[in-house]
Design brief:
This protein is an alpha/beta fold and 352 residues long. The chain has helices spanning 17-26, 52-60, 72-79, 113-124, 133-136, 142-148, 156-168, 244-257, 278-287, 296-300, 310-316, 322-330; strands at 10-14, 33-36, 45-47, 65-69, 91-95, 101-106, 127-129, 151-152, 173-177, 193-195, 207-211, 224-229, 232-238, 265-271, 291-294, 334-341, 344-350. This is Cobalt-precorrin 5A hydrolase.
Length: 352
């Protein structure tokens, strides 16, 4: 059975007694918030705030996945004013009251609606209805692959459109994995792609997707599309009020010195005393990554592994910050040296 990641938030909406009954069948299998009409409310359900349309539109901006037990047409009309694009819209799946069909309506690949529709069909003994071209042709898709490996692509929309069109048109699209990532390829769906082992001996191809978090840009005789898995984390210690421009420049330089693609950044972190540090919050926002914080006690437990500073201990409570934070973020896979400049320290890690 395909499953949805447990950390993804799901909201279910039901409008009729039959919908409420179907929601009851699903609740033991999925962690979700269930919304219904005030007239149908029962324990475990939340009443619509301002009616169905208003509640569904609010949830559209608050949840990762939406399930609507009702008519497809009604769902489309309600959501039309809040639709944005496939990169940011949540997944939307529509179910009929009997649970016979799970229709992947919106954000099938990036949002995960196709995956959710299959899971709902498995639970209910129904049929998943999926219309994305790569799926109906029994192929993987570039946006699906990006989602599976948490990857980023420059010019995401155009790259996905081009590669997926190649696949469904019978073109030969190769896929090459950087040696550091070869273990990943057995865990993801690459149906339709042509495996490439040696870049010096390419088979006949119309295009190539290459997967790497290093900075290299391949120059080949076919169109290439670089998919960058987000595997890089950075621990940062800094003095109060540090210049945001300095921090951003240091990170860019540190990534370059370690041959890491900026798109590979997955998270930045620091000690929880830096929760409100403007430069670090700004860096996280501009990089589009979470800012993760750790208590002093967690850093103190690891400081025997790293050089310590009495000044940092007096200021923070632990003898060092960037190294233990990078260690915690990466699961112990620190890479390169610690960069120190003008009251800022940075340490990189790479997730296995």
């Amino acid at each position: 059975m395909s499953t949805v990641r447990p950390d993804l938030s799901i909201a279910l909406f039901c409008l009729t007694p039959g919908g409420v009954a179907l929601a009851r069948r699903l609740r033991p299998h999925l962690k979700m918030s269930c919304f219904t009409s005030p007239a149908l409310i029962e324990p475990g359900f939340i009443p619509f705030d301002g009616g169905f349309a208003n509640a569904l539109r609010q949830a559209f901006g608050q949840y990762d996945r939406l399930i609507v037990i009702g008519a497809t047409g009604v769902t489309v009309r309600v959501l039309a004013p809040v639709l944005h694009d496939k990169l940011t819209d949540p997944a939307v799946v529509v179910l009929d009251e009997q649970g016979q069909f799970a229709i992947s309506l919106l954000s099938g690949h990036v949002g995960g609606a196709n995956q959710l529709a299959r899971q709902l069909a498995d639970i209910l003994g129904g049929q998943a209805v999926i219309t994305t071209a790569t799926d109906v042709n029994n192929m993987a898709a570039l946006d699906q692959l990006a989602g599976e490996i948490d990857g980023r692509i420059d010019n995401f929309r155009d790259s996905v459109k081009t590669v997926n069109q190649m696949l469904v048109s019978g073109k030969k699209v190769g896929i090459w994995w950087h040696p550091a990532l070869v273990a990943q390829k057995e865990r993801v769906d690459t149906r339709g792609f042509v495996p490439v082992e040696d870049l010096a001996a390419l088979p006949e191809l119309d295009g190539l997707v290459y997967i790497s978090y290093h900075r290299e840009m391949l120059r080949l005789n076919v169109p290439t599309f670089k998919l960058v898995p987000r595997r890089v984390v950075v621990g940062i210690g800094c003095r109060r009020g540090v210049d945001p421009v300095l921090v951003a420049q240091m990170l860019s330089a540190h990534l370059a010195d370690n041959d890491l693609d900026p798109l590979a950044l997955k998270a930045i972190g620091s000690v929880d005393l830096k929760r409100d540090e403007p430069a670090l919050n700004q860096l996280a926002r501009s990089s589009g990554v979470p800012f993760q914080l750790f208590p002093v006690s967690a850093l103190s437990e690891l400081e025997h592994l790293f050089p310590v500073s009495d000044f940092v201990r007096q200021t923070v409570g632990a003898g060092c910050v960037s190294q233990p934070v990078a260690w915690l973020l990466s699961g112990g896979n620190i890479t390169g040296h610690t960069l120190k400049q003008q009251g800022v320290t940075m340490t990189l890690g790479v997730l296995a």
